[in-house]
UniProtKB/TrEMBL annotation:
CC terms in the record's Gene Ontology section: cytoplasm; plasma membrane
Main location: cytoplasm
Protein name: Dedicator of cytokinesis 1
Single Gene Ontology MF annotation: small GTPase binding
Organism of derivation: Cyanistes caeruleus (Eurasian blue tit)
GO BP terms, alphabetized: cell migration; myoblast fusion; small GTPase-mediated signal transduction
Span of domain C2 DOCK-type: 330-514
Cell location: Cytoplasm
Keywords tagged on the record: Cytoplasm, Phosphoprotein
Transmembrane segments: none
Family: Belongs to the DOCK family.
Amino acid sequence: HLKEAIVEGKGQHETVIPNELPLIQEVTTTLREWSIIWRQLYVQDHREMFRSVRHMIYDLIEWRSQILSGTLPQDELKELKKKVTAKIDYGNRILDLDLVVRDEDGNILDPELTSTISLFRAHEIASKQVEERLQEEKRDPENAVSKFAATPSFALFVNLKNVVCKIGEDAEVLMSLYDPLESKFISENYLVRWSSCGLPKDIDRLHNLRAVFTDLGSKDLKREKISFVCQIVRVGRMELRDNNTRKLTSGLRRPFGVAVMDVTDIVNGKVDDEDKQHFIPFQPVAGENDFLQTVINKVIAAKEVNHKGQGRYLSFCAPWFASRAGGDVRNDIYVTLVQGDFDKGSKTTAKNVEVTVSVYDEDGKRLESVIFPGAGDEAISEYKSVIYYQVKQPRWFETVKVAIPIEDVNRSHLRFTFRHRSSQDSKDKSEKIFALAFVKLMRYDGTTLRDGEHDLIVYKAEAKKLEDASTYLSLPSTKIELEEKGHSATGKSMQNLGSCTISKDSFQISTLVCSTKLTQNVDLLGLLKWRSNTSLLHQNLKQLMKVDGGEVVKFLQDTLDALFNIMMENSESETFDTLVFDALVFIIGLIADRKFQHFNPVLETYIKKHFSATLAYTKLTKVLKTYVDSAEKCGITDQLFKAMKALEYIFKFIVRSRILFNQEILLPTMTDQLKYHLERQEDLEACCQLLSNILEVLYKKDVGPTQRHVQIIMENLLRTVNRTVISMGRDSELIGSFVACMTAILRQMEDYHYAHLIKTFGKMRSDVDFLMETFIMFKNLIGKNVYPSDWVIMNMMQNKAQGFGVTNLIELPPVCSR
């Protein structure tokens, strides 16, 4: 096998770099390093550590092959990358190897392209995470249970060990969580394709059939009952008893059976043994036209299942708390085929209806690989439903995830085609599409398709006509749309619509939009797209405060951007200032609500990283002052009270805006204050945090020229920071932070700054003291590291900055002492 690679350098300096994902290269390097240590552990008879390393190596090998396969969906690949990096970091710690520092996506940080402060903070975070993992290995599982009620989001880990069931054909094993009281699924499916041989079709996943059900909120914890449901769909002939397979239609999805287990105690953390293997008995369908949903409810209601030894073996890991931030970007639409009612037409019995789901744009072009039948499976271009044999009113309750690029949503629609499937291959080939239903993902007012159930109109026409999007796209898609156009729900007054005819058949779907970019609220949409119709801006700002809080927090950053853009683009006018201020107070009040308190970090992150309105402080201050001055007036008390409750964040916006407005004014003031407090050893932690933030900002490439700013810090703070480091003991919690600040200053100083230092260096005793203090500090830091020995990158960064500093400082003119 030849591996693609890139060759850098020539001759002795030639380096061959595999053309692979950086994470794959890291895993490969790690495995080679660990394998040597593993052998040494065997030779030295360290059995316990030998077994631990073996398990970690096997895990990395398995995960590496999964990533290389290229078959994982993006969300599952992202989760797997997190597991891989966590395992590598944990293994490096217990083997006393170097600590690896990463960015938020798990990529190794390049020290040459990363600021000193960012590197230091990354080391702190990585070290803390590994330490927490070490503690988790020792802690009592009961400690986690008490946190459940307060956590906004948690996850449940499931490991499928085996499927003991005689099917005789290929099958799909679909696992999901189910609320038996509401008779509805509360998660998407985890899909495993099972072969007729009794093994996974992807043999590489034989001992790795694991799933994590994520984003389960506190609402799910409060459910009275939660069941784990495993559905089996047979893929093959219409009827298993038919033996002459050559003449029979194949590839049909047919109901086979279910397995159900109550996992309420597991979800609530009441199960002690997480490694326990559970047997879930299998209940086959009584007849091949039994609805899987009906069988699920029957099994839940029954006390015992006559499983005859057939079932699933699984293990569950009690929920852990998800780290997904409230501001994560997501754009998924879940589509559920609910039920239908189809006339038998010219046939003597009811049809064997198969629904095909696909996504098309307005030009009739199909969007490829946008439908996910379940986590763990590849994206497909069309999804085919289960077929219920000769059933007039099938009930499917099958859910798929549709993931469309945000820019394509407004041009896309879901298309459902209906076809009768015959058990005989010769007859089946002649069966054409007999009807069609569709629904656009974007409504006429620009909002997204509403969550909930939709009664779609079923159209009939010639099969070729139904394949042409222009034939039906101008027609109403739901019965509500039909009524809005002044026609009855049956459409009797408009039966013939060009090439299409409204059928007596009915079809119902359900949709759920999980998106941070697509809103279903027309008032919020009006604000987000305020530039398209500025005449409605006054109304849109007022209406924002009536929008459901859940919808607002989903679009928190976009909403805040819109508010401050309105303020900045009307800087010469005060027309919208009060309304924008009130809207801002409304949003801050929402986040203060316990229901949305987990969005607090999102607001903090927005202020620190995304907020950019440099003149907002003047307008916010002016409106706030107006409210305070008018406190005694009637009708303003309520709004003033709300503003006072939001005062913390109002001032954070004001301060951040002022900082952005004029760093040139603020920096000298801040450095003077820092120097004042550092010289008196006051508020050292706050001083260090502020100086770190300043240096972090000045390292960025998009903040304009920083030469003058670095010079101000060098002149006012370099010596003070050096003295602070010298005066601190090695056991101080802040010593590492101050050394990072000192290293950052030295690293951000250029030749210009050293030249300026040489030029201004005088003949005073204080100058001699500065040199002596600096060299003594360098010597002490090199002789006795401040940072742990596994912080190799941080130690090297510190030594490099000090070496560069020494090289330049020895060029200073000689100084005479008096």
